[in-house]
Amino acid sequence: MNKGEIIRKYEARKKKKETVPQFAVGDTVVVYYKIKEGDKERVQPFEGTVIRHYGRGIGASFTVRKIIAGEGVEKTFPLYSPNLVDVKVERRGDVCRARLYYLRQRVGKSTKVKEKAHTAETEESTISEHPNAEAAVEKEPVAKEK
After folding, report:
1. What is the fold of 3-14+22-139?
2. What pLDDT, in 10s, does the model give residues 101-124?
3. Which residues are paired to 61 by β-bridges?
4. Reported confidence tier of residue 145, pLDDT bands at 50, 70, 90
5. What residue spans define the domains of the chain?
């Protein structure tokens, strides 16, 4: 067994334990992570826009940016860190870039990312969540065009 196989086995074992939420660059997320202060441990939320998603495998990380008291604050979180408790997506952003570093030069409302439009993919996930919704969609009469 060579080094590459050993690394792949380790990464696969580590990935099985962790469930990673699906989010993309431009999404507004709330990251809950553990902070250790002396003997105490608490969970602190950090809400902001994902400006970077880096790497694959267990070394993957992402950077979140938000404005606090007029100053931009960026934090980078390892995706498979044991201190990362949860990542919740507040809203989906519609961007055409893999890195949103241009947000660093913007101030105020210009830092907002346009929200992703309602797509067929999100419609399907909404319908699949509600079993009665499928029956309602099938029974709706279709309007005839003249």
Report:
1. SH3 type barrels. (2.30.30)
2. 888 887 776 666 777 776 655 544
3. 54, 78
4. low
5. 3-14+22-139
